[in-house]
């Protein structure tokens, strides 16, 4: 049965990793402006297409 | 043929119609030289991708640019206020640019270093319509950067009032952190608790069971002590002010749930309700976030300072110095150019003044001011250079005096809304029930059951359901209204909106359009020759009414006028082709063609005979008649305007004879009128206005809605901002707000049923964690789905979903 305990610890660690990633992204300002990056990605494509 | 084809063409830069074919470059046509100039600059710097990204992405550039317009940006003190970081090499500055609207704008502004090589980098925040620019101090200056932006058609909005630290508020981010933490803990506690629900406790290995319990408790700590802090803080704040708010029972329930769960776990009596606790915190935080999403680009707190320029050109001994407006003193001589707002009360000393007061007083036609006469703050000079002598400084002027009214300094009082009221009774009821059931078991001598019953009642009866239904309903309604370009300051406004019973309208700019008037001719048909004669004479006059009619006649070949005479503000006369032509107001001419037709009139009088008259009326916004017709059925409406009463008959026709209609009202009178309605007639008033002259009334009213036209981001302080094109839907918006209230009551009643079932068991002291654990999420999820579904259904029925894109 102890395998469940190991599994649980692993799963919480993974979930914790995602939590940290989320908090980091918020802190980094990823959610401050959700419109410009969506547009910006299109320009880069345009440029490379031209080259 | 080629001519008619040209008319169909639209400007390569901004997409507006091209009036004639005169402004061209190769195969491209432009509507004005401004647009052409922007194209040339972009072409020169190899920035024409701008036009590939979107068709006709620009905005019309029909304005004259003046050299030295930004001279004031060389002033060090002003620079210091605008630039937020600077060292020897670089400076950082953020501009608000209202024109940002499409991906082309974004692309161009981020490539602006190609136009001005002093700019190191630029980054656009599309949501906030801001551009963050880093520039090299040795190669360029702030003034230069602003000029570059202006040259490509993106004039930054400069105002000392709105410059603050541009970093997003911290509370915004903590809410995200809290939701993240709560969600993480909730999910994991839930996972471990599931084992208990699915199988009976004795099947699980005691070691694993203990491990699960320890982990659950550990995971619940950050939920209670971090994510849920705002409930405790708010409850405590309420208690300190001797006021039971809705957060009090929530905080109480959370605390008791936690204590009891710990007690059960340490005693081995059960597994506690930690999963339910974490879940409810998670759902409530999401609800609060939904409700508090605000519109970052819209400012609801503007006062006069936002409308005024940063600096004025002060002339002293023939030298022009740009001076910050707060430093402009009495008796200073200032220069004002075309299309600039005059921020002080001043006397005209030089130049032809044609002042547009529409934003300040609501007068729809510009006013000509003679030398020696007063010009009041807030007026906008239409054309030409003026020199003025300051009579009253910015803070003392006629207009800004309005802001000395106590209403502007009053803190927004915390008024109880329905949900607080329900919440209060709910709290009392729950506490009473808890004590009663506890007392009942105590009298029977069953102390264990007493504690059981008392705590579970408080846990089950947590008013989370009320909070959830309130937050999710209003959150979604705010979203739907936002998609329809009706932006509210806060969710509380929705409730206030559903409670109003009187509507006060402003005229100019609110139900009528600020610019553009309808011109109609009534009388004997004017043949070509006569038409040209009228136009020739009118061309001589600069009176606004003459200009409007000249534009309407649109004659290009004119006759010569001799013996021209103008009676200021009355009319004009002169001789054309040996005929005497007299044009002017009915009083001036001494006759009128139709006595019964309302509006500003320009009467034509040739050789002693009245031929007819031009009638100038305001242009009403699209759909206003229908809107007022439907609002009339539900509310009493009155109209209060700063303009003169030429539109009286039209308005009476629109509102009905019994409505109160006032003209020539000062901003202060507007405010007083609203106050009177509230105090003496006990009405809940909604004010709809647009200009600075409505600022006081908007603030005083229960719900103040400002009307904004596209391209005009300047609205006075208000509870909500509505796009001018959507004003006609206001009645549907109010219906949605009313429906919101019903939805909250409905979903809340459903959750009360859940609670009653729970209470039935809780009061007997036999509520098992399994039932609690199933009831709580069930009721929360039902509420979330129901509120969302119902608000969507109502907005679909009101046709508000279709216009969203």
**CATH superfamily assignment of the largest domain in chain B?**
HAD superfamily/HAD-like
Structural category of chain A is: mainly alpha
Quaternary status: heterodimer
Euclidean distance between termini CA atoms of chain A: 60 Å
Unreliable runs of chain A, pLDDT <50, ≥5 residues?
46-51
Q: What is the 3D form of chain B?
A: elongated
Question: Gap between N and C termini of chain B, in Å?
Answer: 38 Å
- Beta fraction of chain B: 15-25%
Radius of gyration of chain B: 33 Å
DSSP E strands of chain B, number:
29
In percent, how much strand structure appears in the residues of chain A?
A: under 5%
Major sheet details of chain B: 7 strands, mixed
Largest sheet of chain A: none
Structural class of chain B: alpha+beta
Number of helical segments with 4 or more residues of chain A: 2
Written account of the structure:
The complex is a heterodimer of chains A (51) and B (805). Chain A has one domain. Chain A has two helices and no strands. By secondary structure, chain A is mainly α. Chain B has 805 residues and is α+β, with helices and mostly antiparallel strands. Chain B folds into seven domains: 52 residues, no CATH class; 81 residues, Alpha-Beta Plaits (2-Layer Sandwich); 121 residues; 98 residues, Calcium-transporting ATPase, cytoplasmic transduction domain A, CATH 2.70.150.10; 134 residues, no CATH class; 140 residues, HAD superfamily/HAD-like (Rossmann fold), CATH 3.40.50.1000; 104 residues, Calcium-transporting ATPase, cytoplasmic domain N, CATH 3.40.1110.10. Chain B is 44% helix and 19% strand. In chain B, the strands form six sheets. Chain B has a seven-stranded mixed sheet, sandwiched between helices. In chain B, strands 8-7-9-16-11-14 form a six-stranded antiparallel sheet, with no helix packed on it. The longest helix of chain B has 35 residues. The two termini of chain B are 38 Å apart. The N terminus of chain B is likely disordered.
